Amino acid sequence: MATYLITGAAGFIGSSLARAVLKQRDQVRGIDNFSTGKRENIEEILDQIDFREVDLLDLDALHSVCQGVDYIFHEAAIPSVPKSVLDPLGSNRANVDGTVHLLIAAKDAKVKRVVYAASSSAYGDTPTLPKHEEMVANPLSPYAVAKLAGEYYMKSFYRCYGLETVSLRYFNIFGPRQDPTSPYSGVLAKFITQMLKGQAPTIFGDGTQSRDFTYIENVISANLLAAKAPASEAAGRVFNVATGTRVDLNETFQLLKKLTGYEGQVNYGPERAGDVKHSLADLSRTQGHLGYRPVVNFEEGLRRTVEWYREQAQGAESCSNQASVSRS
Ligand code: UD2
Q1: SS3 309
Q2: Are strands 210-211 and 247-248 parallel, antiparallel or unpaired?
Q3: For ligand 1, is residue 193 a contact (CB within 6 Å)?
Q4: Which pLDDT score, from 0 to 100, does residue 328 have?
Q5: For ligand 1, atom 28, which residue shows the shortest CA distance?
Q6: Which residues, other chains included, contact 15 with Cβ-Cβ below 8 Å and sequence gap of 6+?
Q7: Which atom of ligand 1 is nearest to the CA of 141?
Q8: Residue 305 and residue 174: Cα distance in Å, rounded?
Q9: Taking residues 176-196, what's their average pLDDT?
Q10: Is the CB of 296 under 6 A from ligand 1?
């Protein structure tokens, strides 16, 4: 039985990975500082994992957390383009300094491999589509720069210290447990919850910007493959994780109308600073080296995600009805 350390274990992606590792009957150690993660995401699995509230900037704590760990899934981050534009120092501290701290602790503890949550934002506004890993990076926002710096540190720790590292460039991940409540939340989580409540979502710009939106199960699959792929195929490398299809925001809004039953309009607002116009992944390297294939396509992922948020909303409503009945 292997031990997996998941950073950001109380976050959307980390908590989903924790469930997947438990399902394959390996051990999970999880850390989170709850800056964006939520205890409720891991509540039902807390008794099955070794969870510790630890900040990535605490090197002593990381040294102890990494003892006895075989693999690390490094998901902890402040994941937002607009937040990084407002607070580049905060983004750098969490996303770069935090990553270097973790790498040092992983190297000292002789961890077998670190799999890192990199970002498609590294490609920035390069006009070429689809984006392939050999392209020169062109990060736009401070967030994109920070995530790319993390990739370079991954490579550097492999080359300088022999610590096996793999960087997975996630393309706009969505699915159950993604937080819809922050102004910095991913667009699909926001739009779905707004439309289920009958509220009009706002598209920043004209809605022709496109994304390779990727359902969470694809990310889980890519991480599990990346942890176990032979070093000759994976170590020190960068891989796209996506579906290899893209959809623009206007089309997405129309699809969501059907899935949510929302009948109102969409608002249009100013374009967001640091925003990338189009994003689409070439998956040939990930397929060739890791054996990755998308397991759930965009529309099916969207359907499952809408259902999940609908159930959450219904659960919350029935709780508040019960509370008002017991008060009266
Ligand atoms: C970037 C990365 C993504 C991931 C993410 C973490 C790219 C192409 N993608 O996602 O891989 O690292 O950062 O946060 O760089 N939007 C609206 N209305 C809203 C909210 C967003 O129109 O209420 C637009 C936004 O302007 C953008 C698109 O929706 O054009 C997607 O925005 P997002 O914040 O969901 O993700 P993005 O693309 O910044």
Answers
A1: helix
A2: antiparallel
A3: no
A4: 60
A5: 187
A6: 9, 37, 41, 42, 45, 177
A7: 15
A8: 8
A9: 95
A10: no
Mean residue pLDDT across the chain? 96
List the one residue out of 239, 288, 23, 266 whose CA is nearest residue 131: 239
> Domain locations in the chain?
3-173+215-245+275-296
Whether 272 is in the pocket of ligand 1, judged by its Cβ within 6 Å, is yes
pLDDT band at 274 (very low <50, low <70, confident <90, very high): confident
The pLDDT, as a whole number, for residue 315 is: 84
pLDDT in tens, 133-167: 999 999 999 999 999 999 999 999 999 999 999 99
> How many angstroms separate the Cα of 135 from the Cα of each of 139, 210, 281, 314?
12, 19, 12, 45
Q: Model confidence at 123, in pLDDT bands (50, 70, 90)?
A: very high
Per CATH, the number for 3-173+215-245+275-296 is 3.40.50.720
Q: Is the pLDDT of residue 239 over 90?
A: yes
Q: How far apart are CA 137 and CA 125, in angstroms?
A: 9
Phi, psi dihedral angles at 102 (to 5 degrees):
-65, -40
Name residues whose C-beta falls within 8 Å of residue 113's C-beta, 6 or more positions apart in sequence.
70, 71, 72, 164, 165, 166, 226, 227, 235
Tell which atom from ligand 1 comes closest to the C-alpha of 274: 39
Q: Is 275 in the pocket of ligand 1 (CB under 6 A)?
A: yes
Judged against a pLDDT cut of 80, whether residue 267 lies above it is answered with: yes
Q: Can you point out the beta strands (E) in the chain?
A: 3-7, 27-32, 50-53, 71-74, 113-119, 164-170, 173-174, 202-204, 210-211, 214-215, 237-241, 247-248, 267-269
Question: In the predicted model, is pLDDT for residue 93 greater than 70?
Answer: yes
Per the structure block, which two tokens stand in for 189?
């989580």
pLDDT of residue 318: 74
Task: Give, for 148, the enclosing helix (H) or strand (E).
Answer: helix 142-161
Which backbone phi and psi does 286 adopt, to 5 degrees? -65, -40
